[in-house]
Design goal:
The complex is a heterotrimer of chains A (673), B (331) and C (267).
Chain A: H1 14-38, H2 50-66, H3 75-103, H4 110-141, H5 150-176, H6 178-181, H7 183-186, H8 190-194, H9 198-202, H10 206-233, H11 240-249, H12 280-288, H13 294-298, H14 300-303, H15 310-325, H16 345-350, H17 356-360, H18 368-381, H19 387-399, E1 432-435, H20 438-442, H21 444-459, E2 464-465, H22 476-480, H23 484-500, E3 505-508, H24 511-520, E4 529-532, H25 533-542, E5 554-558, H26 565-568, H27 572-580, E6 584-586, H28 616-626, E7 631-634, H29 637-649, E8 657-660, H30 661-668
Parallel strand pairs in A: 1-2, 1-3, 3-4, 5-6, 5-7, 7-8
Helix pairs in contact in A: 1-10, 3-4, 4-5, 5-10, 11-12, 12-15, 21-30, 25-27, 28-29
Chain B: E1 6-9, E2 12-13, E3 16-17, H1 19-35, E4 39-45, H2 51-57, E5 62-67, H3 76-90, E6 94-98, H4 101-114, E7 117-122, E8 124-127, E9 134-140, E10 145-150, E11 157-161, E12 178-181, E13 193-199, E14 212-216, H5 226-235, E15 239-242, H6 244-248, E16 269-273, H7 279-282, E17 290-295, H8 302-305, E18 308-311, H9 314-328
Parallel strand pairs in B: 1-4, 1-6, 4-5, 5-12, 6-11, 7-11, 14-15, 14-16, 16-17, 17-18
Antiparallel strand pairs in B: 2-3, 8-9, 9-10
Helix pairs in contact in B: 3-4, 5-9
Chain C: E1 2-7, E2 9-10, E3 21-23, E4 28-30, E5 38-39, H1 41-56, E6 61-67, H2 73-82, E7 86-90, H3 100-114, E8 119-123, H4 134-142, E9 146-156, E10 159-166, E11 169-176, E12 179-183, H5 195-203, E13 208-209, H6 211-214, E14 229-234, E15 243-244, H7 250-263
Parallel strand pairs in C: 1-6, 1-8, 6-7, 7-13, 8-12, 9-12
Antiparallel strand pairs in C: 2-5, 3-4, 9-10, 10-11
The chains are: A mainly alpha (673), B alpha/beta (331), C alpha/beta (267).
Chain lengths: 673, 331, 267
């Protein structure tokens, strides 16, 4: 029966156990050290709800782990990693099978053994192909996002050498045994067989083969254990084998980009000013980062020449963390500060909180909340922020909305004039509250959208009320700016206001208000049924309450607002509405849905412009222009303003108009008079 | 004690009676005539004896000259001491000052010391025919409203007048008047000392004197963009102004600020670019003969005071306007 | 060093002019509903300047005082959040409708009750009635020097160097302490209250003092004691109507405007 002897030609095999034991000790030490380093951070509620975590991990483990769903969004690096991953998994399983059969004296023989040999041989090839792809990419293609360190070369070489020496050992064993005794068994180890050929080891004497085999076997054994020790002791990125799944296990299961509330009564430090202010999960994030650069590729700040790269930010936090953790070699006084040193303030302010980075990250790193945490420190502890952010926040504080100067033109309730709408104060017996939001109430262009939406709701016979001049700001701009104190004050007042009118259902025109109400208010005790106006309109269309009869005869493209799409997975409703409009063709931009590119207005950028690089809204408008569409539809007041500004700034040959979906619906509605 | 007469606190600039002094004498003369009282003027400075006759020619009946080295430049303590002492001596019914660097500082101190009734930054002064009280009209709430103010009992009735709001006095060299020297002042009253005066450079024409002013607001966007306004101003031999917001952004020095707390200008042509027209800004330019408003927002307040307006992005309008004007002016 | 900053709560001056309403009978301004009052812009800059002095001169204490009816403690809380150490509210029916002399008397009495002080900061004027007298009259009442329209203050021992705003630049004056300084908007943008500042301010008690507490002279306060009175309040009318120039493009509109200016000999 076909089989092979474990420890064939090897004496003093206990030495291997000693070696392995040493490696295990180092691994245990490394785990302990990492654990200690993560615990430098503050507590995090991620240690709770372990049951649902395990379930989520198992559930998505197949798709995201074994299936590489997130990796394969980019074919080349996805396949590369998939080959190495699956090759290594098979090889590890094979080693386990070897150990089990050896110690339990369950013979691995016959055709099972032969198939086993073949699979293991193929697995090695998979790894080698993956390594070759990796080397080609990193050292020949050199994409911009990859930052190469010595470790990258070292680990790729180590993997390659381990695999190749493995094949050589196999070849030598075959040359001494199966090739002579059972040549048809040897065919099941095709790669090993290569090394029995005359040109390689074939011409050697039997004794030489035995000696060479034993030397190589020990070399292989030492190399494998040495690699483990190297990875355990250095900060090699191969550690991600353990840390990345761990990070995926502790990943955010709640809403996207929602920072933790601060208990203002007890907090001693507001936000993150140094490494120890991060939570342990945020530190684990850095540890899990493999520097792959997917986040950087999709980042609007990076694409427009701003100093922020989410990859670099994560790596810089990681480096700072490692330095702080080793005060002996990095005396604290020699360390740069975290903010303004390791991370520049301009980087922190460049983020539009679009969440593209988090969507792209294969290991579930969360960049946004870290950035907001650092902004919190800047605004609330250090009072340092761009001047226009300060103006915006002051305006929120004194006037209850972020639009500095808008007030000299119109007041909050002005848009309601002549509409005959009831405020909740006048009549609170309505099905839902139309929450207009600051921008849609104060900015002229956005007021047009608000009026269109009101016409649509009236036509559909929706029973709704408004707050009119009493409508405050939802607090979102303050929260994204890190000025949590203002946010929490707003939240407290708003919840009291809404509960006072017994509001249950809210329709919001602004995805930022929508997201804040839906995902962030519940933490403060305010739970409302919130829908975005696109959801409501899509629903009204489905129920046939609105009839769209007027031809628009136009080609449109749809820009996904980040806070609708990536934050709340609302992709189909806006498109359904557009499809329902007669003679309106929809053509998607190259980047759409979850891969949509930011308009540039999120994360407080609506109120200040970093005078560095180019403009995000210009880039996005160019993408819209490529579709040859005449209308770029969107569903967010910020997106509308940003796109419109970019369109006006271009000398366009083709007509392109930015429109809110509510306006298009209003236009397409049957007009009674 | 009944107060009598009108006292004007004159100002001297570059060895001559300052333009505001002529305005003060103009309105002072008118009020004096209405009340049938004397017009006094106090001139403070050093080596200014020759200006007394000038003041008489411009309408003063009595000129009180405080000629002292300590008074060379405006000094709050010294000027207050001199003016207060004179007021205590002659007990005027009305004291008029200019709403200038000096007058703005001196008037409330003097009022505090004398206990009079003061209205600052007046646009109009008149005598109520029945009560013979001084009626003072001044802007309040950033110019959103005007208030008429009278002091029934407190004396003297005091006012500072905004520059360029009153008709300047007309020179008549045949006029006669009396020159009275003011006694020496007590140097120990000077507690606050002026260490240095720094003039901030302004390119080209002075904002207050310019016949054309091109002003920008927050809508200009950044410091570099002010260049298009400078180009237009240079073409028209004008000066560049700005709103408080634009100055606070640091886009242009504070000395360019037009408005209630900045400069008051009244050029022939005021071009308001990308500014919404907050009342406190309009307060500084509402005396302009012709106002042009360029703003993206057709609802902006500035259009309410403008003669001509263009609704649109200034980045497109102003260069085209400059180009055409250049052509028309043959430059 | 002890700095006292006088702050005032005013109706929001950034009201759209079309929304600005007055009651000619009572001669009062009626702020549009839903527009909360704010700290007077110049007073806020006075607090800012005080905070800057405190940063450069450790050990400096800042006391913010305000006077007015209603929830004026908000502006003191704002000053506390910005960096003031203590706050006092002066509130009494008898204080209402005082003029600058009355206000100066009340402030002087309160300041005398506080006791020791080195520097008193006020806004150059309150951004509502724009009267611009209280600081100077307060100095005269207390018998100490005053420096007006300051944009910067540097402390040098028992003296201060103050940069005063002038029409064509600025002057630097040296004043002995104690003295009053009125502050102009050239100070620059006031700081945003830090989160810690807001939290600490919320915890601080702000005492309210009445006329009796400070020993104000009833004959010197209230409308009866006012040196001057408002006989009418009105919104000035403007008779200009704007001719909006339109054309196919903005550039053409600009050309039309240029021609018009030339025609009418404006240029």
């Amino acid at each position: 029966m076909a089989h092979r002897e474990i420890f064939w030609n090897i004496s003093h095999e206990y030495i291997m156990y000693v070696l392995s034991f040493i490696a295990v000790v180092f691994v245990a030490y490394a785990i302990y050290r990492h654990y200690k380093m993560w615990r430098m951070g503050k507590g995090d509620e991620r240690s709770k709800n372990m049951g649902s975590r395990v379930w989520a991990f198992v559930k998505t483990g197949f798709a995201d782990g074994l299936g590489h769903r997130r990796f394969l969004r980019e074919p080349y690096p996805g396949i590369m990693h998939l080959l190495i991953f699956w090759g290594c998994v098979i090889l590890l399983l094979a080693a386990a099978v070897d150990a089990i059969t050896h110690y339990l004296v369950i013979p691995l023989e016959g055709s099972t053994y032969l198939w086993f040999s073949l699979v293991v041989d193929i697995a090695g090839i998979l790894v080698l192909i993956g390594v070759i792809l990796a080397i080609t990419r990193r050292y020949i293609q050199k994409p911009e996002r990859l930052n190469t360190f010595l470790d990258d070369g070292v680990i790729l070489s180590l993997i390659a050498i381990v695999i190749i020496t493995g094949y050589m050992i196999e070849g030598l064993r075959l040359a001494a045994t199966e090739v002579n005794t059972n040549p048809d068994w040897a065919l099941w180890s095709p790669v090993g067989l290569v090394f029995t050929k005359k040109t390689l080891f074939g011409g050697l004497s039997h004794d030489t083969i035995l000696t060479l085999h034993s030397v190589l076997w020990w070399f292989h054994a030492v190399l494998v254990n040495g690699t483990i020790i190297y990875v355990a002791l250095s900060y090699s990125k191969l550690q991600h084998i353990v840390i990345s799944p761990l990070n995926a296990f502790f990943r955010n299961l709640g809403p996207v980009g929602a920072p933790a509330p601060i208990d203002m009564e007890t907090a001693e430090v507001l936000g993150v000013g140094e490494i120890k202010d991060f939570t342990w999960k945020q530190l684990l994030d850095g540890d899990a980062c493999t520097n792959c650069g997917r986040c950087q590729d999709v980042c609007p700040a990076w694409a427009s020449g701003k100093p922020l790269s989410p990859r670099k930010l994560t790596q810089d936090i990681k480096t700072q963390w490692q330095k702080v953790a080793n005060p002996k070699s990095n005396p604290p006084e020699s360390l740069p500060p975290l903010i303004g040193g390791a991370i520049a303030e301009d980087e922190i302010w460049a983020c539009t909180t679009c969440a593209a980075c988090q969507q792209a990250c294969p290991v579930f790193i969360e960049h946004i909340v870290k950035i907001i945490d650092m902004r919190r420190n800047l605004t609330m502890m250090q009072s340092k922020m761009p001047e226009n952010i300060q103006l915006m926040l002051r305006n929120m504080q004194t006037r209850g909305h972020p639009w500095v100067g808008a007030q000299t033109l119109r007041l909050r309730g002005d848009w309601t004039s002549g509409l005959g709408l009831n405020t909740l104060a006048e009549d609170s017996n309505v099905d839902m509250l139309l929450w207009v939001g600051c921008t849609a109430a104060l900015s002229d262009r956005n007021v047009e959208v608000t009026l269109a939406l009101v016409r649509v709701l009236k036509a559909a016979g929706v029973s709704f009320g408004i707050l009119g001049e009493d409508e405050p700001c939802c607090g979102d701009p303050a929260r994204r700016a890190g000025y949590e104190i203002q946010f929490q004050t707003s939240v407290e007042q708003n919840i009291a206001l809404l509960q006072g009118y017994n509001v249950k259902n809210i329709v919001a025109t602004c995805p930022h208000c929508y997201n804040t109400f839906k995902n962030e208010y519940p933490k403060f005790g305010g739970s409302f049924n919130v829908v975005h106006h696109t959801q409501l309109i899509a629903d009204l269309l489905k129920q046939d309450k609105i009839k769209l009869t007027c031809d628009l005869r136009s080609l449109a493209t749809y820009h996904d607002p980040c806070y609708l799409g990536r934050y709340n997975s609302i992709y189909s409703e806006p498109r359904n509405i557009l499809h329902a409009i007669p003679q309106l063709k929809l053509k998607e931009m190259e980047r759409s849905h979850s891969k949509s590119f930011c308009c540039g207005g999120g994360g407080t950028h609506m109120w200040f412009e970093q005078q560095i690089g180019t403009k995000v809204n210009d880039i996005r408008t160019d993408e819209a222009l490529k579709t040859n569409a005449e209308i770029v539809a969107t569903a967010c007041p910020y997106c509308l303003l940003m796109l419109e500004e970019a369109i006006q700034g271009k000398d366009l040959q083709q007509p392109l108009k930015a429109k809110d979906i509510a306006e298009l619906v209003d236009q397409a509605m049957e007009k009674s008079a | 004690m009944s107060n009598q007469g009108i006292l004007v606190c004159g100002e001297i600039a570059e060895g001559k009676l300052a333009p505001i002094t002529l305005e003060l004498l103009g309105i002072g003369r008118k009020l004096a005539n209405d009340l049938g009282q004397e017009l006094n003027i106090l001139l403070m400075g050093s080596g200014i004896g020759n200006l007394a006759q000038e003041a008489i020619a411009f309408g003063a009946d009595k000129v009180h000259v405080a000629d002292n080295a300590l008074l060379q430049e405006y000094n709050s303590d010294a000027y207050t001491a001199v003016a207060a002492k004179l007021c205590q001596k002659i007990s005027p019914d009305i004291v008029l000052l200019g709403q200038t660097d000096g007058g703005r500082d001196l008037a409330p101190r003097l009022a505090g010391r004398l206990g009079g009734g003061l209205a600052m930054d007046c646009l109009e002064l008149s005598i109520d025919p029945s009560t013979k009280l001084l009626v003072q009209t001044r802007p309040v709430f950033g110019g959103n409203a005007n208030a008429r103010i009278v002091s029934k009992a407190a004396r003297p009735q005091m006012a500072t007048i905004r520059s360029k709001t009153m008709a300047p006095a007309v020179r008549d060299d045949s006029r006669k008047g009396q020159v009275i020297p003011v006694e020496d002042i007590d140097a120990s009253t000077v507690k606050v000392k002026v260490l240095e005066r720094v003039k901030e450079k302004t390119e080209g024409v002075k904002l207050e004197d310019a016949e054309v002013v091109v002003s920008g607001g927050r809508g200009i966007g950044n410091a570099q963009n002010f260049q298009v306004l400078r180009d237009l101003a240079n073409l028209l031999n004008g000066a560049v102004g700005a709103t408080r917001a634009a100055c606070e952004e640091g886009w242009i020095p504070m000395t360019h600020q037009v408005g209630q707390t900045g400069k008051i200008v009244s050029p022939k042509l005021y071009i308001a670019v990308a500014l919404s027209g907050a009342m406190q800004h309009i307060a500084g330019c509402s005396g302009s003969k012709c106002v042009i408003a360029v703003n993206k927002d057709g609802g902006a307040n500035i259009f309410k005071i403008a003669t001509y307006g263009i609704v649109g992005d200034y980045k497109e309008v102003i260069p085209a306007l400059s180009q055409k004007l250049k052509e028309l002016l043959g430059k | 060093m002890h700095i006292i900053v006088c702050v005032k709560q005013i109706p929001d001056p950034e009201v759209p002019p079309a929304k600005f309403k007055i009651d000619p009978d009572t001669k009062k301004v009626m702020p549009p509903p839903g527009l909360p009052p704010v700290i007077s812009v110049f007073d806020e800059r006075a607090v800012e300047l005080a905070c800057r002095i405190k940063e450069k001169n450790p050990g400096t204490k800042i006391t913010a005082i305000t006077m007015g009816p209603g929830k004026v403690s908000d502006v003191v809380k704002h000053a506390l959040a910005m960096g003031a150490d203590e706050g006092i509210v002066l509130q009494d029916k008898a204080f209402e409708d005082s003029d600058s002399f009355g206000n100066a008397h009340i402030l002087a009495k309160a300041i005398q009750k506080i006791g020791s002080y080195d520097l008193i900061l006020c806004g150059r004027q309150a951004a509502d009635w724009d009267i611009g007298q209280t600081g100077s009259i307060l100095a005269e009442t207390l018998g100490i020097p005053v420096v007006t329209v300051a944009k910067d203050i540097e402390v040098a021992g028992d003296k201060i160097k103050v940069s005063r705003v002038m029409e064509d630049g600025y002057e630097v004056v040296e004043a002995p302490l104690p003295c009053v300084v009125t502050v102009s908007n050239e100070v620059g943008l006031p700081r945003l209250p830090s989160g810690m500042g807001i939290i600490q301010a919320a915890r601080k008690q702000v005492p309210a003092w009445t006329a009796a507490d400070i020993g104000a002279d009833p004959a010197k306060i209230g409308p009866a004691a006012a040196h001057s009175e408002i006989t009418s309040l009105f919104i000035p009318t403007r008779d200009t109507t704007c001719e909006v120039i339109t054309a196919d493009t903005l550039a053409e509109a600009a050309v039309k405007l240029a021609l018009k200016l030339r025609e009418t000999k404006v240029v």
